Amino acid sequence: MSDANTPDTPKGDDARDQLVELAEQFYDQFADGSVPKMTLPTRSKSNIEYDDDSDVWVYGDRTSTRSANSVRGARKLLKSIYTIDFLAQQLDEDRSSTLRELYYLSESWDEEEAQFNDQSESDKLVEDLEIVSGVKREDFHMRPEESGAKVMGPLRIREQTNRGDREIHCQDDVGQGGYQIPNNPDTIEFLDCDAEFVMCVETGGMRDRLVENGFDDEYDCLVVHLGGQPARATRRLTKRLHDELGLPITVFTDGDPWSYRIFGSVSYGSIKSAHLSEYLATPEAQFVGIRPQDIVDYDLPTDPLSDSDVNALESELEDPRFQSDFWTEQIELQLDIDKKAEQQALASRGLDFVTDTYLPERLDEMNVI
Amino acid sequence: MSDANTPDTPKGDDARDQLVELAEQFYDQFADGSVPKMTLPTRSKSNIEYDDDSDVWVYGDRTSTRSANSVRGARKLLKSIYTIDFLAQQLDEDRSSTLRELYYLSESWDEEEAQFNDQSESDKLVEDLEIVSGVKREDFHMRPEESGAKVMGPLRIREQTNRGDREIHCQDDVGQGGYQIPNNPDTIEFLDCDAEFVMCVETGGMRDRLVENGFDDEYDCLVVHLGGQPARATRRLTKRLHDELGLPITVFTDGDPWSYRIFGSVSYGSIKSAHLSEYLATPEAQFVGIRPQDIVDYDLPTDPLSDSDVNALESELEDPRFQSDFWTEQIELQLDIDKKAEQQALASRGLDFVTDTYLPERLDEMNVI
Hints:
Two copies of one chain form a homodimer. The first copy, chain A, is of the alpha/beta class. Chain A folds into two domains: about 130 residues, Arc Repressor Mutant, subunit A (Orthogonal Bundle); about 220 residues, Dna Topoisomerase Vi A Subunit, Chain: A, domain 2. In chain A, about 40% of the residues lie in helices and about 20% in strands. Chain A contains 13 helices and 17 strands. The first copy, chain A, has a six-stranded mixed beta sheet, sandwiched between helices. In chain A, strands 9-8-11 form a three-stranded antiparallel beta sheet, with no helix packed on it. A two-stranded antiparallel sheet of chain A has the order 1-4. In chain A, a hairpin with a 4-residue loop joins β2 and β3. In chain A, α1 runs antiparallel to α2, α3 crosses α4 and α11 packs antiparallel against α12. Chain A starts with 11 loop residues before the first helix and ends with a helix. The relative contact order of chain A is 0.11. The N terminus of chain A is likely disordered. Chains A and B meet through β5, α3, β10 and α5 of A and β5, α3, β10 and α5 of B.
């Protein structure tokens, strides 16, 4: 069983050192008589590229520079210094905070020019610091606003909480609601795992159906609730389950373009967090359904595609992350039939159809079970 | 300590009997040679009234009748019969399903006229059946789509899950994420409680702040995350904590009209579910803040009110549920200063201000601690 503290990026003291080093660079630039500056990869769609080694999308070679040679640039660096100071102190005290708290907290800073004008500014700065320092936000102890989702299945974990360690079996020690993923899942150590694969489920209703029907038990499956667009914590845990425990990851969503994006964010990473793809994305994740072909094969109850659905599908046809025969075929079929279906639409064949027939057949085809 | 199965409304076999009795009424009406019908309270804002005994808002005396003397009415009764049949069978088999599953499942019914045209139709029918039978949706084993939120604090519970009972202490046996409330919190039995009061918190960021700062531990408080407009499960659990354990309920939200509605749904119930007020609403719940007066007193970072904020505040001034000196004064002050603030805005005075100063002072004023 692997260690919880797989040091993908620096933690604790190391994270603090990386931050302070950044501030020291500005100091040295001043001392040298040069204008302080910070260089970052350009964060746009045109500057993400597929990394063949890691099979994820990462930033390309284009860079942008923040220099103190303009008032605007100088103010940005000033804000960076104040933020680094706050983060270093937070790490010293082993505390944490949210992005929103950082934004509000800046109002208490003595230097008014360093205060943030809105939260998007402080959010972006923290992302910039992640990229430049190579330290993840979680390791700065910045908690996301959004909660991670919940897990049910044959896995025993140890979680380091701020009140001591807790050992929890994700079936035997939890209620029907399952184990709640903490904001920073790197505090989790995997102790014992009897699971054969992971199934990430988009909707709460389907998650509850699988749990009620005992799917996790019968198929030795870890059911991970995504709850729409998955939180960072959920994606991180999924990746660790794959990398450290060698579990196949499957994703089960509604059959519409927004759900394919949910699959994409689990498997390919997102443009906004391409610097974190290696930390969050699981390129080996497999899409279970609902596939447009399922709508046809199982004659599912459907809704017609809206204009925005059609646009989203067309944009996926162009998206480098969806360039495969499978996706091209499925998306073109969906545009052709002009229909979408929810995962719970499988209930039109009875409440147990999904666990007795649909999933076992599909997972068998995919060689997962 | 009270029993988990406080039979507020019939459960299991009783729920089934109530449903079947409804169907029998239709049968008897047929047998008598009269046109079958179903009578319901009128479900509109004009037909809710304050019940002095229970201190909650309930439906008034006006009623509407569904009769089979029109094709439309006959179809409604047919759908009711099919739904009752499905629910009775579900209860027989001790299974459960979601509202969305019911809607989709109707596509498998042999009688096409009984199938629902959209989910709002089946949702409404289930509510009607709740009202007429006096049985709650949860006791029909209809699970909500939305998950309940999570609890952290000195409480030990036993939850009946479909894989056996689980005993869980909501501090010692859970991770940082806390105990996940199940969809039907009436499966929970309270075993031991060292809590002195309950604090329902709107945002995840503030919930995490209280937990990180050990507020639940220091003040013997059950921190219940609302996560925006609270799920039925969360409101039900809150009510049970009040009624069965005698705990004062406090509600801590952002300082804007939408958050006052969140408080209202915990304390007064909603128009849509006025038939459930006695089951879900806790009229003794107290509002902690953020109050408009706090924005002034603590000079909090704010945003200006939008047009829809102003409209919502004005509508609250007219709302029978907000007719108190406290609310009138606060809402008028807010319209006057034209500002709103989030609970996390307290971070502008430091990350610990909320737990060291704001909450202790406010709760002391309110005689909660």
